Amino acid sequence: MARLSSTSGLGRLGPALLLMAPAVVMVGLLFVYPLLVSLAFAFRNESTGAWDLANFQKAFSLYGNDIALTAGVTVLATALVGVLAIAIAGYLTLGENPRAVFVLRWLYRWPLFIPFVVAAQLMRTFLAKNGMLNNALMSLGVVDPLHAISLLDWRGVVITFVWKQLPFAALLISGAMASMDRSMIESARGLGAGRFRILLEIVVPQVMSTVFVALILSFVTMLSALSVPMMIVAGSPTLLTVDMAWRVNSYGDYGVANALGFVSFAMSGVAAWFYLRQGLREGGKPR
User: Fold this and answer.
1) Residue 209 burial (C-beta neighbours within 10 Å; 0-12, 13-18, 19+)
2) Checking CA distances to 222, which of 19, 79, 104, 160 falls within 20 to 30 Å?
3) 8-state DSSP, 31
4) Residue 284, by phi and psi: left (phi above 0), alpha (psi -120 to 50) or beta?
5) pLDDT score of 280
6) Does residue 25 register a pLDDT over 80?
7) Average per-residue pLDDT for the chain
8) Which of 73, 40, 100, 95 shows the shortest CA–CA distance to 238?
9) What is the reported pLDDT for 259?
10) Within a 13 Å sphere around the CA of 248, how many CA atoms are in the beta-carbon half?
11) What are the helix (H) ranges across the chain?
C-alpha cells in the first residue's frame, strides 16, 4: 500500500516538475551559476593560482573609503525615501483637499517612467555650480554668485536616488494605506485626533510591513545603480559599482572586481535577510 501511495504521489508531481523545469534551468544557468562563479573567483589569486584573500585585501586597501561611502549614501537615501514616501502616502490617504490630493497623485509618479541614466543627466544640469538650482537661488537673492557651490558629489547621488525611488516606495505604501479599514481613522477623527497623529499612531503601524518591503527593494536597487554615481560624481571617493566597472574595463582585473561585488552582495544580503524574516513573520509568504 505504501509503495502504491508513493508511486501515485510521484505521478502527481511529474507534470508539476515538467512545468517547473524550464524556469528552474533558466534561473540556474542565467542567475545562480554566474553568481556562484563570480563569488567563488573573488577568492582566486590569479598571480599565484592560490585561493586566498588577496583580492579582498587589495579591494579594501584601494577602495575602503568607497565601500564606506556606498553604505552611507545608500542607507541615507533609503531613510529619506522612507520618510518622504510615508508623508506623500499619508497625505493621499488623509488629505482633505481633493484638488491637492489629485495634483499630488498625478505628479509624484512621473520619475517612475524615467530611467536612471536620464535622471542622472537631469540632475547634472540641475545641481551643477552653474545649474538651474543655483541660477534660481541667485535670481531670488538667496545665494551670492561667488558662493554658489556644486552638488555634483555624494549629495547629488543621494538627491538623485531619492528623486528616482520615492515614487516607487510611495506607490506601494499608498496602496497599502488605501486598502486599510478606515473605521479606526474615522473614529480617531471623531475623537479630535489630528492628521499627523493619526498617520503616526494608527496608519503607519498597520502598513509597516509594506514600508519595510518598499525600503528593502529600494535599497537593493540603489546599491546596484551604475549610471548615477558615474555621471554625478566626477572624482574620488565614488560608489562601488563605478569601481567594479573601472577594474574590469581599465585593468581587466576581475579578481578585485569580484571581491568588490562580493562586498556589495553582502550588503544586499543583509537587506534580503530582513526581507525574508519579514515574510516569515507573515506566514512564510514574502511579498
Assistant:
1) middle
2) 104
3) I
4) left
5) 66
6) yes
7) 88
8) 73
9) 93
10) 13
11) 2-27, 33-40, 54-94, 98-107, 116-127, 132-139, 154-178, 183-190, 195-198, 204-206, 208-223, 227-232, 240-251, 254-281
